[in-house]
């Protein structure tokens, strides 16, 4: 505890290079080659991070003004000279015995003061069950990719527990406040209370300790984490303790109970805001960056600009009361998600109430809709260009690759972009689609658009470790299809993961693609043709499985049309045939995905159970893990399938079982001649889903089988039929 308290008083020194920390990172990343690297300090260039790479006396010299710059220099060397790559989904560190020595000095300065990372949702959809080992790996990934401003909300519940108990609240009050760990993202944003708890005391203390380690490592590398601030969210029992408090009862409208927001006009608001930051700083230190989102998918009670301006000023004053250097980092999601309310006058009022140098706005979804363009670059506030990309952790090959390659630099160089001070990644989930994250972070050290014709072949060479024309041809097709960024906001789901229906889509299962299914076939042809050349590469095997998965997921719809037609034609024999083929397709997808840990249910559930210190805690965490990716809430949840995953184990045990039950329902109508009761089926299936959420089963945590062999088998099985059936 003492160490982190000291961190809070060393802010001015944190941006300086800590040479031992850089050597430690090099040893973690390339342990067998650490002796080949020399780390040296380098002065900042006008306050912007800078690095150099140079060869000297048979060594590779990495210079930087801080640990992030040195890590970026290392990654620059690994990608440009050794043709390596480090991603969540496949790493190529096949270094030669004798490392190549740079012939001349390379000097890079970033045009971006800030490189932001993470979203409240990421902490739930991807990071709920992470331990220190996984966090250590992620912090290294951040440093290598130049990220210096991550959202850091682990252990927030410890601070809340201290603050509220210091105000007289008891354990029962807090149990009725805290959600289960999988739902912290929305608890932190004030959307839900209590759900899937009660939160064990062991979690609160263990994650306090985990956050201390996370922040210490980030700061020693020069990373400045963004910590939370108070936005008014209080326990439901607040009224009992403070009967005269001015509270607003609000509802997220997604099937959960009301939450309570303390009005910023109430004197308690400033008092609690100050206490929270003071308590947080004691335990976690501070870098003066605070995240606060006052109305995340909750509409304010008034659209009066004066009201909004005063509200904003009070939120900032709550931060400033505890930390005069406080900078409010605001997610701009509300301006996108509720544009009807947030007109220019309202946005301007909210932003202008805070001094320009004490606020940074995150344009959260800039690659899809740049809010900066309709707000005069946020009316003079510093702001950050972000790629959102993934919603809910869904598996879907999708992205706006051309926009990501060109638009950050275009915005940077646009005279109308005002105080654009950074770039960032604000996805709801990670550990998928690595190409877009390598591409986006490529911008960190350049101010010009990325030429994809040049970048993509280099990316693939680094990823696969070999050059393959077939693989490049596959990716050129991907670029023109799944990554073309047209028509839809985010990646489409497959009808296979939707709650069974005769329709082409279901709730949160939007199946409209941004390309014709048939147009993706050449990518599958070419990636399969590349197997002999590339099969030793982990990154290639991930891509092979992902492309094959997408082809099979897309094929679900044409097969669905076949059994729907047979059903309407009352052709029972054809119905049985096509229903069986549909179920077999799901089985085949499950077998394919079992070859890669990236696509398996087992690790998600095992990691959740491993966080438990008692049998009861393990059961609770497993329920959290199962619930989030299926129903999301209770049996009547309107969010079911929002976080659907095409994962081995989930396909066979959840999605396939639901479809089999649906086929049994339809089969019954052949015998009775009556239309099935689909409403009753939905009710019964949601009850079955709730039983699944509350069940327990051990799933494999290690992959089984050869990705290349299984993908090739499925290609040979399905390719000819797809030629006939896909449009």
From TrEMBL:
Signal peptide feature range: none
Entry keyword annotation includes ATP-binding: no
Domain Alpha-N-acetylglucosaminidase N-terminal: residue ranges: 21-100
Example of a GO biological process term: carbohydrate metabolic process
Species for this entry: Mucilaginibacter rubeus
Keyword entries, A-Z: Hydrolase
GO molecular function annotations of the record: hydrolase activity
Residues covered by the Alpha-N-acetylglucosaminidase tim-barrel domain: 115-446
UniProt xrefs under PANTHER family: ALPHA-N-ACETYLGLUCOSAMINIDASE
Gene3D superfamilies membership: Chitobiase/beta-hexosaminidase domain 2-like, Glycosidases, N-acetyl-b-d-glucoasminidase
Descriptive protein name: Alpha-N-acetylglucosaminidase
Classification via InterPro entries: GH, Hex-like_dom2, NAGLU, NAGLU_C, NAGLU_N, NAGLU_tim-barrel
A Pfam family of this chain: NAGLU_C
Domain Alpha-N-acetylglucosaminidase C-terminal per the UniProt entry, residue ranges: 455-717
Domain of life: Bacteria
């Amino acid at each position: 505890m003492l160490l982190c308290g000291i961190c809070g008083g060393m802010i001015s020194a944190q941006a300086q290079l800590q040479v031992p920390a850089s050597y430690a990172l090099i040893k973690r990343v390339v342990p067998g080659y650490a002796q080949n690297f020399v780390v040296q300090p380098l002065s900042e260039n006008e306050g912007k991070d800078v690095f150099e790479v140079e060869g000297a006396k048979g060594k590779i010299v990495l210079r930087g003004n801080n640990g992030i710059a040195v890590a970026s220099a290392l990654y620059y060397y690994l990608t440009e000279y050794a043709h390596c790559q480090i991603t969540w989904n496949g790493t190529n560190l096949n270094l030669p015995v004798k490392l190549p020595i740079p012939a001349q000095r390379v000097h890079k300065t970033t045009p971006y003061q800030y490189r932001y990372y993470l979203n409240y949702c990421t902490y739930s959809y991807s990071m709920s069950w992470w331990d220190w080992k996984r966090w250590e790996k992620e912090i290294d990934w951040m440093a290598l990719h130049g990220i210096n401003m991550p959202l850091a909300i682990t252990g927030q519940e410890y601070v809340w527990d201290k603050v509220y108990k210091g105000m007289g609240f008891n354990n029962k009050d807090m149990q009725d406040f805290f959600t289960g760990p999988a739902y912290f993202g929305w608890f932190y944003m004030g959307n839900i209370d209590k759900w899937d708890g009660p939160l064990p005391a062991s979690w609160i203390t263990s994650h306090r300790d985990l956050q201390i380690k996370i922040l210490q490592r980030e700061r020693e590398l020069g990373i400045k984490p963004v910590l939370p601030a108070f936005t008014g969210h209080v326990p439901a029992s607040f009224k009992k303790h403070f009967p005269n408090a001015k509270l607003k009862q609000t509802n997220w409208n997604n099937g959960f109970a009301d939450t309570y927001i303390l009005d910023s006009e109430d004197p308690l608001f400033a008092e609690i805001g100050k206490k929270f930051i003071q308590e947080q700083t004691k335990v976690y230190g501070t870098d003066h960056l605070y995240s606060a989102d006052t109305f995340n998918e909750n509409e304010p009670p008034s659209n009066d600009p004066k009201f909004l301006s005063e509200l904003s000023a009070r939120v900032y004053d709550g931060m400033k009361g505890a930390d005069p250097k406080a900078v409010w980092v605001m997610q701009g999601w509300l301006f996108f998600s509720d544009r009807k309310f947030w007109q220019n006058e309202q946005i301007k009022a909210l932003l202008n109430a805070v001094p320009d140098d004490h606020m940074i706005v995150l344009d959260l979804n800039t690659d899809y809709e740049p809010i900066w363009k309709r707000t005069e670059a946020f009316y003079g506030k510093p702001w950050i260009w972000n790629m959102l990309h993934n919603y809910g952790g869904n598996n879907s090959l999708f992205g706006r690759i051309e926009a990501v390659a060109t638009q950050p630099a275009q915005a940077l160089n646009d005279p109308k972009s005002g105080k654009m001070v950074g770039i960032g990644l604000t996805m709801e989930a990670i550990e998928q689609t690595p190409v877009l994250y390598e591409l986006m972070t490529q911008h960190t050290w350049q101010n010009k658009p990325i030429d994809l014709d040049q970048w993509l072949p280099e990316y693939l060479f680094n990823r696969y470790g070999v050059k393959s024309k077939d693989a490049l041809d596959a990716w050129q097709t991907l670029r023109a299809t799944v990554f073309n960024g047209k028509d839809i906001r985010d990646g489409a789901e497959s009808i296979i993961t939707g709650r069974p229906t005769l329709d082409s889509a279901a709730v949160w299962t939007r199946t409209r693609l941004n390309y014709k299914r048939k147009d993706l076939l050449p990518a599958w042809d070419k990636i399969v043709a590349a197997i002999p050349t590339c099969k030793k590469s982990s990154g290639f095997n991930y891509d092979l499985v992902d492309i094959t998965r997408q082809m099979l997921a897309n094929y679900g719809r044409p097969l669905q049309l076949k059994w729907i037609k047979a059903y309407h034609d009352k052709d029972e024999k054809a119905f049985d045939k096509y229903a069986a083929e549909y179920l077999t397709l799901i089985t085949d997808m499950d077998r394919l995905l079992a070859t890669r840990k990236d696509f398996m249910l087992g690790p998600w559930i095992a990691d959740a159970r491993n966080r438990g210190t008692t049998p009861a805690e393990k059961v609770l965490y497993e329920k959290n893990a199962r619930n989030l990716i299926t129903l999301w809430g209770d049996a009547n949840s309107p969010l079911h399938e929002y976080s659907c995953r095409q994962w081995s184990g989930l396909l066979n045990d959840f999605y396939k079982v639901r479809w089999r039950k649906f086929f049994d329902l339809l089969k019954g109508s052949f015998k009775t001649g009556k239309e099935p009761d689909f409403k009753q089926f939905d009710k019964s299936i949601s009850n079955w889903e709730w039983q699944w959420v509350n069940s327990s089963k051990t799933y494999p945590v290690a992959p089984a089988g050869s990705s290349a062999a299984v993908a090739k088998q499925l290609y040979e099985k399905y390719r000819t039929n797809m030629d006939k059936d896909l449009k």
